[in-house]
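Postdoc handover notes: sequence design on the structure in folder B. Input tokens:
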């Protein structure tokens, strides 16, 4: 399909993507309605609209670059924010609840596959992508899309369906705290703390307030992320060439699984170094 910005007009397409991402973040931090929706959803919905009205192309080498390089680099940068030891020490109950919900998501995906496999092409791939997304977010979606080598048009269609449903779910979840019945029957410590502190306004703006960051911080974060991605690619490639069994190549030879496991291991072994890269306390919204 012809679009105003052609698929090979790399600089213009990168510029449009970057500007629209900046606009989405600006809207999130300026307006309460946008904060409730989130900048990510605004960016995705806007991209859907621009694609369907013929401004953006459906496929482009720019998109391939995002999937191949930006997404893998985002995985360690996001994981740097967690404290693995603290999670195991203080969040065992929450972890157990998460595992139960993850199992429910997987079972629901399996059931949906058998009910709809005659009507939706590549549902085995799409089901894996969707269930991974609902368990671990967009990074998992990207990892499964790359692993299953799902055709681009089906990835795009699944992204649209995924985010439309998630936007609807977000609106439902956001409205729950305002319902009197939930206020009477469930504690809401976060809202109570905000009211006690006398803070109001846009929570997204408060969360993403200015933080001190040096050139060394940027260099170390970028260097660590690139190093982890490079090492994981080499290790997964080695195991993929070493083994022929699908189970072994699908686990030890999987780049994203190796990258996530290696990053978590580094975080566990060197917590002080990673805490220095990205201070966990500075990420707290209040």
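Designed sequence:
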């Amino acid at each position: 399909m012809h679009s105003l910005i052609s698929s090979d007009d790399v600089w213009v397409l990168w510029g449009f993507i970057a500007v629209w991402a900046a606009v989405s973040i600006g809207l999130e931090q300026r307006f309460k309605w946008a904060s409730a929706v989130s900048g990510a959803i605004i960016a995705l919905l806007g991209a859907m609209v621009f694609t369907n009205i013929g401004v953006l192309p459906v496929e482009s080498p720019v998109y391939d670059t995002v999937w191949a390089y930006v997404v893998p680099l985002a995985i360690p940068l996001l994981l740097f924010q967690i404290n693995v030891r603290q999670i195991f020490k203080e969040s065992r109950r929450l972890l157990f609840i998460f595992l139960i919900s993850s199992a429910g998501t997987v079972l629901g995906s399996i059931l949906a596959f058998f009910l709809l496999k005659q009507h939706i092409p590549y549902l085995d791939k799409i089901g894996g992508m969707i269930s991974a997304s609902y368990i671990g977010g967009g990074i998992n979606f990207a990892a499964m899309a790359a692993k299953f080598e799902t055709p681009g048009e089906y990835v795009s269609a699944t992204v649209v369906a995924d985010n439309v449903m998630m936007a609807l779910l977000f609106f439902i979840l956001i409205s729950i705290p305002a319902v009197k019945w939930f206020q009477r029957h469930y504690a809401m410590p976060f809202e109570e703390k905000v009211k006690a502190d006398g803070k109001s306004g846009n929570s997204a703006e408060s969360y993403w307030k200015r933080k001190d960051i040096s050139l060394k911080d940027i260099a170390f974060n970028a260097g660590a992320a690139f190093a982890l991605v490079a090492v994981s690619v080499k290790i997964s490639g080695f195991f993929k060439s070493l083994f022929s069994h699908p189970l072994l190549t699908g686990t030890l030879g999987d780049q994203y699984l190796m990258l996530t496991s290696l990053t978590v291991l580094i975080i566990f072994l060197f917590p002080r170094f990673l805490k220095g890269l990205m201070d966990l306390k500075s990420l707290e919204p209040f």
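Context for whoever picks this up: The first helix runs from residue 10 to 30. Don't rerun without checking with the PI first.
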